[in-house]
Structures are given as structure tokens and as C-alpha cells.
Amino acid sequence: MTSLASGFARSQRWLREHPLALDGSLAVTVLICMVIGSFAEPYGKHGPEFGARTPELRSVLLIAVVSAALVLRRSRPMCVLLFTGLLSVIELIVGDPAAPVVMSAVIALYTVGSRTDRPTTWRVGLLAMTVLTGTAMFFGSTPWYTQENLGIFAWTGMAAAAGDAVRSRRAFVDAIRERAERAERTREEEARRRVAEERLRIARDLHDVVAHHIALVNVQAGVAAHVMDRRPDQAKEALAHVREASRSALNELRATVGLLRQSGDPEAPTEPAPGLDVLDALVTTFRQAGLPVEVARADDGARPPSAVDLAAYRIIQEALTNVQKHAGREATAEVSVIRVGATLEVTVLDNGKAPELCPAGCEEVHPGGPPPGAGAHPEPGGGGHGLLGMRERVTALGGRLSAGPRYGGGFRVQAILPLTVRTGENR
Length: 427
Prior knowledge:
The protein is α+β, with helices and mostly antiparallel strands.
């Protein structure tokens, strides 16, 4: 049964790919049917009798010509209908009795209905039905009320209706297939977009974690190397800070990379994302690394939305990391977190040397994106992604970021974050 179904499917596929072969087979089948029908006498003593008459040569020629015309029914449906209808009218007028040439016109009318629109189908169908039935009734050799004439009326009407039904079903199936393909494309595009957003978010978090902790490790390792011989106690303390910073980096990296685990993987991370609640701990790590940091908060102690909380923490972390790396040994930093109406203002200032980048002097980033020609970050050499990550976080929340050298020396980073984020999460 399976092999029979597969063979039928292959045959159907082949005929769909070679429509001319299908139309040729149909033409031969119609030719055989019309030839056989031309030998039948419809008015015998006991009803229709087969073999009681022989068709005329004219009728045979008309049958052959209209059958050959059906081969072109798909490419030129209207022309084929007009041609077969005209020859059918001729046969109905001069035939005694007429050969079933009208069968070809019925096939052609069905083709017109299946390949055109509904108004055209009904207009052409009514015209063909009227002309063929009226010719058979008023010019045929039999009385107008015979069943053959009524049969022409019925067959032409059914051909037009069947063609319109096939066209409607084909259009319905095509519409369903198109909607399914469009939905599949939309699903794939949405999946790709979500994957890209997740990759960007993870890359941003990895950068923040690695840049912060590795900068601290680098500073403390340099201190340890410098005082190793003269002050071993201080070197030991610096190495302890290195160990603590590296352990924190590993923990945060493990938590971030854990987001890539499958749903069934064990030991999935359960720690919440860092926020302003742990700001004191973050500042302590910088103080231990030798960077004096002052913190001023006027946010009423209220916890902002999680996305804003994480963005504020990461902005402060990255800004202080840049101060640690680029501002010099004598630099100090000030951090302020202030709530102003429906926004949270996060500012990081330092009094160190200004970075070599950002020749325009400053940069302001709005939700629509950075201004043309603005620098991507304030880090020397243009190789980092710190300010770029800040910009992406702030832009995603609909806030505003400005960063640039301060008058008199130092650098200033300020982010204004809305307390009602775009995702609908609010305070």
C-alpha cells in the first residue's frame, strides 16, 4: 500500500512538472470518448443503441481538430474555448445527429473557470451555455426539448461551477501555504533577533566583569612586584587582593556563562544580578586597589527596576575601571546616585589626566543613537568597548549618556536612566 501511494505521488509530481503531457493525455482521452460517442444512435427503438450509425467524415475531422486544440488549454484558455465553441456550434447545426463535439467546449469552459477570476467565469459561462444550448435547441435536427439539449445546458453549467470551485480551492491552499511560510520566516527572524540580543547582552556582561576584575588584578600584581623585596607584608596583602579579585571574577564569569546552559543542566546559577545594593562592596574593591572613591547617594533607598539597577551598577563599575586604568596613580573618583523625578542620575567623576581619545571634547548619547563621528569610548588607543557597552545599556532603557573630559582636568561620565523602562517594568 505504501509503494502504491509513493508511486501515485511520483506520478502526480511528474505530471505537475510536465503539464503539456497531462493536457496531451486528456486530449487523447476526450478524442476516444467523442469517437465512441459518435457511433451511438440516441433514438433507437429501445433507447440509445451503440453501433447503429457511422459518423460522417466531417464530424471525425471536427473531433480530431477540437481534441488537438485542448493541448493548448492552459496557455490560451479563452482562445481554446472560442475555437471549440465555434466548431461545436457548426456541428450542432449541420450534424444529423450531431457528434459529441461539444464535449471539448465543456472541457475548455472548465479550464477558463479554473484559471481566471469569478466574474469572468460566470460571464463567459453564461454566454457559452446560452449559445451552445440555444443552438442545439433551435438549429439541431432533434426537438428542442430532448434530453441531449438539456444535457448540454447542464454540462456547461457544471463545467463553469467546477472550474470556479477548483480555482477558489487552489487560491485558498496557496494563501494558507503563504501564511505558513511567512509565519515560519517571522519565527526564524524573531529567533535570530533574540539570539543576537542575548549574545550582545552576554558579551557586554563578560566585558564588564573581565575589565573590572582584571584591572584590579593587574594593579595589585604591579604593587606586589614593586614592593616584594622591600615590604613583603604589603606584597602579601596585594597578592591577597589579587586572589580575592580573581575569585570574584571567576564567580561572576561562572554565573554569566551559566546562562548558556540548557534547561536541564545541573548547577544552574541562582545568584541575582548585581545592583546598587552591592555598590559599597564594589567601591571597596577599588579602594583596596588604591583608588580613593567617594560615594554620594540621594535615591531614597528605593530599589529601581531590575534592568535600571543592573545598568547603573555596570556603568559605575566600568567608569571606575577606566579611572583605575587610565587616570593615573594620584587620581580620585566620586560617584553619585541621585533620583530626580522619574529618572535616576548616575555620575562618575575623576580628577586624573584626560584620555587621549574623544577629540571633540565630549559625547552625548540619546536613545536614537550616537551623533555622527562621536568616539566609541574614552579609552586610549580605541581598542576597548567600555563606553560602547554603557551606550548600549542606556539606549536600550531609553535613557541618555554623556561622557567627556572635565574642565580643569579629569573625566566625567553621566547616565540618566528612566525609572519606567521600555519593557513595562516600573517601580
